[in-house]
Amino acid sequence: MSTAPHEDVLPDEELRTLLAHWRAANYLSAGQIYLLANPLLTEPLRPEHIKPRLLGHWGTSPGLNLVYTHMNRVIRKRDLDALVIWGPGHGGPSVVANSWLEGSYSETYPDVSLDAEGMERLFRQFSFPGGVPSHVAPETPGSIHEGGELGYSLAHAYGAAFDNPGLLVACVIGDGEAETGPLAASWHSDKFLDPVHDGAVLPILHLNGYKIANPTVLSRLPEHELDAMLRGFGHDPVHVTGDDPEQVHRDMAAALDQVLDRIAVIQRTAREEGVTERPRWPMIVLRTPKGWTGPAEVDGVPVEGTWRAHQVPLAGVRDNPGHLAMLEQWLRSYRPEELFGADGAPVAEVLACVPAGAKRLGSSPHANGGLLTRQLPVPPLEDFAVPVERPGAGTHEPTRVLGAMLEQVMKNTAARRDFRLVGPDETDSNRLSAVFGATGKAWQAETLPGDVNLDRHGRVMEILSEHLCQGWLEGYTLTGRHGLFSCYEAFVHIVDSMVNQHIKWLKTSRALSWRAPVPSLNYLLTSHVWRQDHNGFSHQDPGFVDHVLNKSPEVVRVYLPPDANTLLSVADHALRSKDYVNVVVAGKQPCFDWLSMDEARVHCARGAGIWDWAGNEQGREPDVVLGCAGDVPTQEVLAAAKLLRQHLPDLAFRVVNVVDMTRLLPKEEHPHGLSEAEYHGLFTSDKPVVFAYHGYPWLIHRLAYRRRGHAHLHVRGYKEAGTTTTPFDMVVQNDLDRYRLVMDVIDRVPGLAVRAAAVRQTMADARARHHLHIRATGVDLPEVAEWTWND
């Protein structure tokens, strides 16, 4: 077991400057929680100096301040490019305090100046109406990680380090978040970190013993047991433990010097000597008391070192003179008169450890990744487009076609290394294996003779954890690079909460002029609900689209391309875009080719449009509109259209295909939304609309409920009916099949119920024949399995 060496690496003078910086950061952290005025305590503390609502979290702040102080030291001493991911959920006051001390905050927000007036603004704004959140949020300079929800810090750190060979990413992991599933899986990220092309990740596991009301699991493990666990994950831990400030500072300095020397050796031997053995990356285990340097006891009960220090250790300060006196004693214990000049600016001793310019943690361009982003070199789509002489004449697997384009993207970015494909063990399954012609799968662990496509320097990343795929890609895109997350549709729900956090981050960032736009986070959802031949009901859930469309409209985009060429067009747009979450749902099974590449571009640019060749209006006002969104629903609508031509030749119908789901929203609610005139031009305002949708039917109703014609809208989609069955039986079980759609038309067009009763009966009989046929043969009816548009 490794502990920090006890020989002094700090001259006494340097130790004094580190302690001064740490005291200043602690003072500013506590001041943000409590003070409304009198920031320098130039007069006795009075109730009116205290905020009326005390919000924030003190418990983790002193430990984070310790890390920030010592990161400053090593960045300055070693001229490092560094980024820190602050995992503990409520470390906002600490990171804001330190960025203000180093000057980054005032440069970003000039009204929060580096003086007494600025300090007062700094204090007032924290967790205050019109101010800043208590978390490390987008508003915080130097941050890429929202501290609101726990568990994602280490995945974000590795994402930031991939393809960033000159970057050190330190990641402070709170012992509360260390109990989460995503964080537990994240320890395996070291098996994917390439010491040649990637930066280094330095995990700092901060154990202060408690969560909001309970002890933490890892803090209660004996040190040797915890050490063995971390070594089992492939790390080489260095332990720093204590509550004596001077000794802890000496030990932390020694520990950082030790681990950074080790990282330098790992990178040098891999890059210059060709060493290929998987390294044991160092890490630090830091144990300090929760609420360290705060009130030791309040009202007769211990606070420092307990869960009571988690949030606000002294409550009711305005109304309790005893608590007010304790707060003043606590704040004055940091001796602010020694740390700040008469004008409120930090004194030279406090700033002695702070690096300069972009080396400061709050000014790192890696934490404002749009500053580093280069346009992704997407190749011409014509190089990969499938030929379409007439609609439905041929078939292709859309994702396989996309895979060829992604292979070229990988080749185009081979030297610059700023594009990655991530997914949970499904690149081959999702028909994207062409990418292996350009790069392999990132892998640093043991390889065996039968392994294929494993590559120490690969840029395809597969691990059976959707959480890690999401976290890696978030860290990667937020630091300015591009990527795509390919996933089975049903299981992308695992990251519902993560994408929620990311969307909120992007929405907030877009309102901050100083944050440059970052590459979009792109999902390709395939192996979708309608084709689960090997899996069945457990793999059938199209609801991720519903979840995403609940979120901020300026950030989210959802696309359902109906064929290979439209998928290429949508992917081209998504990969080039910035500041969005793009969700693309596309099948991997053979699908009819409906549109040429030129037609696909035009159709995708519209987002929703009439397919003249599929309907039979011919200048007439339609009696009914057949709407569709998704590859399987589109095929069923076209099959229904063909049946209508055959059985009801006098019926005028229109076919409208929707690629961009947000087009259904009113223009006032989404940038891509259709105006009233545009919407009713497509769907009419008074004619029946039978809409076949890929997912849950109520989403279409929710998107279109404000439209005048909503009362005439009837939607078919997935309604939780499924099993391991034939492809056509899936649509029959959910009443999305062509026969059911024809019956819906007959039921809803005035006058058809009587006139077309025989046709309706024929359709119902076809459904009954299907039911008997698949149970006798195990395959779909020949008229379905062999159906084409052009016969």
Write the SSE topology:
Layout: E1 2-3, H1 12-34, H2 61-78, E2 81-86, H3 92-102, H4 104-108, H5 116-125, H6 153-161, E3 167-174, H7 181-186, E4 200-207, H8 223-232, E5 235-241, H9 245-272, E6 281-287, E7 297-298, E8 301-302, H10 321-332, H11 336-339, H12 348-351, E9 395-396, H13 398-412, E10 419-423, E11 441-442, E12 454-455, E13 460-462, H14 466-478, E14 482-488, H15 496-510, E15 521-526, H16 544-549, E16 556-559, H17 564-576, E17 581-585, E18 591-592, H18 597-606, E19 608-610, E20 624-629, H19 631-647, E21 653-658, H20 676-683, E22 689-693, H21 697-704, E23 713-716, H22 727-733, H23 738-748, H24 752-755, H25 757-777, H26 782-785
Parallel strand pairs: 1-5, 2-3, 3-4, 4-6, 5-6, 10-13, 10-14, 11-12, 14-15, 15-17, 16-17, 20-21, 20-22, 22-23
Antiparallel strand pairs: 7-8, 9-18, 19-21
Find the CATH topology of the largest domain. Rossmann fold
Name the quaternary structure: single chain
- CA(first)-CA(last) distance: 75 Å
Which regions are unreliable across 5 or more consecutive residues at pLDDT < 50? none
The Cα radius of gyration reads 30 Å
CATH class of the largest domain: Alpha Beta
CATH superfamily of the largest domain: Thiamin diphosphate (ThDP)-binding fold, Pyr/PP domains
Alpha-beta classification: alpha/beta
SS elements, strand count:
23
Report the helical percentage.
25-40%
Count of structural domains: 3
Q: How much strand?
A: 5-15%
